């Protein structure tokens, strides 16, 4: 992750320093990356992937049959 460094300029107000900091953080993409990493999904196991693939194939065949019959 890239670090964001913002140094206070001479005579700069605190509010403008905070504004520059938030702008740099937004541009760097640090927050987006942190939000993506916060909740990582576990990969489904092999059996679950296989069952979902079988289900998808069955559903697509079923939709093809109904389409050929003119019901969908």
Quick overview:
The protein has helices at residues 14-28, 30-38, 46-69.
List keywords for this structure.
0% strand; mainly alpha; 2 domains
Model description:
- The protein has 2 domains: 1-40, no CATH class; 41-72.
- The protein has helices spanning 14-28, 30-38, 46-69.
- It is elongated, with a radius of gyration of 26 Å.
- With 72 residues, the protein is mainly alpha-helical.
- The model has no long low-confidence stretch (mean pLDDT 90).
What is the first-to-last residue Cα distance?
50 Å
Q: Secondary-structure element sequence?
A: HHH
The helix/strand class is mainly alpha
What does the largest sheet look like? none
Level of helix content? 55-70%
What's the shape?
elongated
Mean pLDDT equals 90
The parts where pLDDT drops under 50 for at least 5 residues are none
The number of domains: 2
Radius of gyration: 26 Å
Beta-strand residue percentage: under 5%
Tally of DSSP β-strands: 0
Contiguous helical run count: 3
Layout of secondary structure:
Blueprint: H1 14-28, H2 30-38, H3 46-69
